[in-house]
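Consider the following input, taken from an annotated entry for S-formylglutathione hydrolase (Lachancea nothofagi CBS 11611).
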Amino acid sequence: MSFQVDGEVASCGGRLLKLNHESKETKTQMSVNIYLPQQYYTKQTSKIPVIYYLSGLTCSPQNASEKAFWQPQADKYGFAVVFPDTSPRGDEVPDDPENGWDFGLSAGFYVDATQDPYKKNYRMFSYVHDELPRALHQHFQKQGSSSQLDFLDNIAITGHSMGGFGAISAFLQLRSANKYKSCSAFAPMVSPSGVQWGEKAFGGYLGNDITTWKKYDPAALIQTVKNTNNDYILIHQGTSDPFYKKQLKPELLQQAAKGTTWEGKIDVQLVDGFDHSYYFISTFVPKHAEFHAKNLGLI
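Applying the prediction step yields:
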């Protein structure tokens, strides 16, 4: 599968590539950004690991690329960063009938929809965790540099808000396959089945049978998925975040982990005065970068 290059921007010591490609899963053109660190251009012999960053509601690949400041950390440790889009897009893609911002376009919730009219295009779980990594691997293989970038094996995942939910959900769902070496999140929604954002999205994409929601709900998954590798999940949450108490509730993941192999392994760090914005995210990206670099074997 080939990518079209929409732009190439010099950033820090490397370059940010702005790409798009035709997705078989979403049946649309999908945009994705990838930051290639300075180590990519020095042609080092060891493979460069990859961190996948999932953005939140209303975002595109541009938001985190421009405002999260992952690039200096990528250069420091030697990993690449992939910024997927948050939903399929296009005139034919169904949107929120209520014209809201928390469902539909820019709000795919990283699930595979099973309900009409969304199931044709909203295949974000399969797209992000299967099709996109394989497509990137094939693309760079054709460029002659697949041996430099490890899109498939030595990888980690993180995200913000809706993307934080998506990161933790996928990390737990794919734990038996050891898909991701580590997982972190910024202000994630950890129990979507019990909050307004999640109820609306899960109901619209997955239907009204609440038992089917548990496949994606981190608070439910953590009670059934075994932590066989002594993994930790790192979470930062701002105490001045207006969504903290009503929609996000990261402490619920710690509560759900009690009595399981994950008890004591959910590190929720509350940080006073920080909100839900990229001022918050960019402040704590260095801590998350170090956390993942250790798990990816870079430290």
